[in-house]
Amino acid sequence: MAYVITQNCCNDASCVPVCPVNCIHPTPEEPGYGTTEMLYIDPDGCIDCGACLDACPVSAIEPDYDLPAESLPFLELNAAYYRDPARRNYDPTPYKDPAPRTWTGAPAGPLKVAVVGTGPAASYAVQHLLSQRGVDIAIDVFERLLTPWGLVRFGVAPDHLSTKSAAEPFGRALRGRKVRVFLDVTVGEDVTHEQLAERYHAVVYGVGASRDRRLGVEGEDLPGSHAATDFVGWYNGHPDHAASEFDLGVERAVIVGNGNVALDVARVLAKDPEALVATDIAEHALEALRASSIKEIRVVARRGADASAFTTPELIGLKEALGPRLIRSADLGALGADGTPLDRYKRELIEGLPAEVPDGDRPVVVLDYRKTPVAIVGDERVEAVRFARTQIDPETGATSVTDETEDVSAGLVIRSVGHRAQPIKDLPFDEQRAVVPNERGRVVDPSTGTTVPGAFVAGWVKRGPSGVIGTNRRCARETVDALLEDWEAGRLGEPTDSTDVASILPRVTDLEAWKALDAHERTSGRATGRPRVKVADRDAQLAVIAAALSTD
Length: 552
Hints:
- By secondary structure, this protein is an alpha/beta fold.
- It is about 30% helix and about 20% strand.
- The protein has helices at about 50-55, 75-80, 85-90, 120-130, 150-155, 160-165, 165-175, 195-200, 230-235, 260-270, 285-290, 310-320, 340-350, 460-465, 470-490, 510-525, 540-550; strands spanning about 5, 25, 40, 60-65, 110-115, 135-140, 180, 200-205, 210, 225, 250-255, 295-300, 325-330, 365-370, 370-375, 385-390, 400-410, 410-415, 420, 440, 440-445, 450-455.
- The strands form six sheets. A seven-stranded mixed sheet has the order 7-6-5-8-22-21-20, sandwiched between helices. A six-stranded parallel sheet has the order 10-18-11-12-14-13.
- β15 (about 370-375) and β16 (about 385-390) form a beta hairpin.
- The relative contact order is 0.15.
- The model has no long low-confidence stretch (mean pLDDT about 95).
């Protein structure tokens, strides 16, 4: 018997150091860890000890004899990773995470750190700061919303409930006695970076990438054309998108781009709404999906199937959710025979999809290839998307746009071509890469090439929108290690203002507010058989919090 990692892998590598035979790869020190789709267990190396089962924070590991039907493809996926000879010759010596340092040469007195954000990158930074030895530390966390967890709450698809459990250890960290949490605080408006820098040795920004990338084509801003970030925020109950409106009374939706977010959007649009009742999807989105008239969701990619941006686990999940209602276009582009065993397995899954629409009236999802969007067409709202056929050089893989065009009628267009971080007020920003310039998380002023004392970044604002939840663990650790090195070397300087930051905030909303809102959402969910019913509107959130705290 062996254990198998399934589609809910969060890549935080908690399972790797507990494996006594080092058969889970890639480890955080191996090439490709930061970009791998998931982690893989070697079926021949696994000794069936079950240690990884207990260590996985999102319950993504299962014994091979007990796999449900939807997880069976992961047997082949895990095995395919190790068919590459370069991955077979790993050292069986157990991998160990670097032990927390004991800081003996650090300055006297508490290290005061401000952490901006409560998403994965920021939360992992808090965890790593708290794990250090020989450090008297005080951490203040600032969150713009009344709810924590960022990407975990508002980016993970509602039907990926086990992935959302990654927030549980984050909650334990924020409840630590050395941590204070300030909710409903916008850094840059309610409090400035300068005011934080005056009160803390260091400020760590882990604020993610909340803007969408643009297509840059005519008609992109027509009514009916939306960014995937807006649509995902809407169905996940993000307060910024609670009042958004999406016309689902159309027959065809076109999603431009085919990454994991695009597949999430397609699955939510195509899935039976009653299958979403048991999730934490926003109530307003559930009602809109019940009234949807959409019959086809076309997921369109510029390149061929060989270059599909979605991961194999996401494709397996979509296929399991839709069955024969997931189909492919006839033109997949030239499919080569090269690539790794993982590449070939992914390609085989795509080729094995049906190419004809099945009978029935349920929505279908079509994976479409070799089409470059050149315009969104319509007079007063979206009516179609104009695509040009993409030419792919078989030798170099380079793409070019041909003169052959096609208008694909659509009443709804979702643009899913990537994310961009927003500039952080008072810090340098690289507009081209959409990151804060940095070295190992230390913010760097590109005009001088020198570091900005006490300013650090982690997560997507540091490295760009790559990886999944657990990828931020190593990223945040690198940033915190750089911070501690600077503190030990005396490069951080001392705070110049001793007044409590709470005294200058326009309002003080602490973690008790979230506990009250969380309890209300969970209680409301139990009454309807759901994990929670999210309160999406900010005013409604404040009312729930006020009512709960007034009775304490």
